[in-house]
Amino acid sequence: MSADIPAGGTWFDTLKKSFEDVPIDTANDNGIATTEFLEAAESLTSLFDVLGSAAFSPVKSDLTNNIKKVRERQLAAPGESQTLQALVLNELKTKKHVATEGLVWLVRGLEFTAKALRHNLDQGTELSDSFRDAYGKTLKQHHSFLIKPIFSAAMSATPYRKDFYAKLGSDDAKVKAALEREVAALEKRVEILQSFQSRKEAKW
């Protein structure tokens, strides 16, 4: 994994798309570009490979499956899916909600990831504490008693904080700055989508 990191760079330089690069159309209800958002979400799922435990594969596959649901709708109706908001509203007009529901779960998973990383950046605790804290505040309330133990196992399987940061790059200051930028960009887009999803017209 670290072999792909350019000299003097960080793991974030290897991503196909960063959340900072996902356009927000502020003049049009904060529309979030669908293609770039899905690419950034896909890029971020590889962070769970860096965490390096098979216990995280359910977390990653959950995100990947929901990305797939949204992308399938986008491919089926590209003209109506330029932004995520347009995709949802146009799908709901067809009396279906596969992608809409997929996006709800995708946003929940991304919120969980953002909260875990934000907690770790701000508190400096071990990753297991940060991920457990984030899980309790986000996904846990939506998960059944069958799913909770699977995710809880992942929270306990995180590497030591110092080892994780070392995998993201050799320069700790650069790693933290890059992580801060990515998390802040992710938080902003998650917040916009959650605000949209709370509206009556976005529900099924």
UniProtKB/TrEMBL annotation:
Record PANTHER family: GLYCOLIPID TRANSFER PROTEIN-RELATED, PLECKSTRIN HOMOLOGY DOMAIN-CONTAINING FAMILY A MEMBER 8
Protein name per the record: Glycolipid transfer protein domain-containing protein
GO CC annotation: cytosol; membrane
Gene Ontology molecular-function annotations: ceramide 1-phosphate binding; ceramide 1-phosphate transfer activity
Keywords from the named record: Transport
Protein source organism: Aspergillus mulundensis
The keyword Transport is annotated on this UniProt entry: yes
Domain Glycolipid transfer protein, chain residue ranges per copy: 32-169
Domain of life: Eukaryota
